[in-house]
Fold this sequence. Notes:
mainly alpha
Amino acid sequence: MQPKVDQFFKGNLVMAWNIVRHAFVIVFGNFAEALKASIAPFAILVITVLVLNTALGLPLYQDALIAPDAGMQGAIAMASIITIPLYLFIFGWVAVTWHRFILLEEYPTAVPAVAGRPIGAYVGRTVMMTLQMTLIMVPIILVSVLIVGDVFTEPNAFLMNTGTGIAFAIGFGTAFTFFWFRVGISLPAVAVGEPINSRKAWAETKPVWQTILGASIIMVSLNIVVTLLFSLLFVGIPLVAYVLSIAIQWATMMVGVSVLTTIYGHVIEGRPLSGA
């Protein structure tokens, strides 16, 4: 048993870290292309959200550690109805552009192409995956609530129960990300015009599931640490916190898409899974 455990930590976690590191290298080593692939779509998203929040009387920035005011639920629901389709389109637009840059060496323009790109199919696949993930994660959420129920019964619960909240966030986030990465190789497949379904994606990623688990742990932990750090450091400076939150969301999305692309390149196209 001990040799197997050692093998996992020495082999798969090292490989997982190399994949995540390589994803950062892809994004920041091709920073100009990353900006071209995303800056115009993100600008449209940010401007729309700012205008909408102002019109609905919502704060421009909500601290990640503090629960939203209950009196704002109606406005938040209205904003969500409007912005969720926009978020999906922007995500599909940027992700398809970035997948195609990495896999097909198709360089993005200042305003990424929309015509002739499978953005609609990509968004549809994303929605289908989200529904599948919901069916998988609901039982996990219910069990988690029974175990750490007090964390969810008070406003500002994560602030009041930081240790429990962080532990739950890492555990739940890792489970979600693990399933997402395994099934999610179907997304770059759509982007390059070679679609596969969830069952095939799951089967293709089985040989590297331990590495994917390690990458999931690393990605979730990094995201939570960075989000909490900036929330604590800039809690009294909402404008700076808002700008930094956008930067974190951008980096998280671009690196996540790059990790998916790396895994897809290995299990489908036979590229080395070395992170080099």
